[in-house]
Recover the amino acids of this structure.
């Protein structure tokens, strides 16, 4: 299986492309799409959409995995995050990709073993589990973790661990 996974945000969207299963996953590509503060939000959304389209065109994944909606205290932040998520989802629907979302706590539980793990713990585990040469940046690590959790969820023996996952 090949999956593109996205940790959506207006300014720093993490992305990853994983292949294999959770026992032998390989990171084909990962990083962070960083956009400058001076760029209007509409331009950021377009850049996110185009970047995800380019990832899909290049890697031809079977599915897309994305972080589920999280609780935030600021309605502005929630709207911005939802918009970045929508730009990603729209790119996947252009290619008729199945889209699976995972709550952050499930991703952390699957990859670190603790649903409340910190960003540095997620990054460390992604380096270890995927045999990376360096520890990935936080947003890229989150995207790698989302993809890795998706590979675990695809295993019928472990799928029960993801009661909150859903296709969107």
């Amino acid at each position: 299986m090949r999956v593109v996974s996205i940790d959506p945000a207006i300014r720093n969207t993490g992305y990853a492309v994983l292949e294999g299963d959770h026992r032998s996953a390989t990171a084909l590509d990962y990083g962070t799409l960083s956009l400058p503060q001076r760029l209007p939000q509409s331009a950021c959304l377009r850049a996110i959409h185009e970047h995800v389209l380019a990832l899909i065109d290049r890697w031809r994944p079977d599915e897309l995995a994305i972080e589920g909606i999280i609780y935030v205290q600021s309605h502005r932040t929630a709207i911005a995050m939802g918009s970045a998520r929508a730009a990603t989802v729209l790119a996947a629907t252009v290619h008729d990709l199945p889209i699976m979302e995972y709550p952050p706590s499930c991703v952390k539980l699957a990859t670190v073993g603790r649903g409340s793990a910190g960003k540095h713990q997620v990054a460390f585990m992604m380096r270890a589990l995927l045999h990376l040469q360096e520890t990935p940046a936080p947003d890229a690590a989150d995207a790698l973790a989302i993809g890795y959790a998706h590979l675990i969820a695809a295993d019928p023996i472990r799928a029960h661990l993801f009661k909150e996952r859903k296709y969107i």
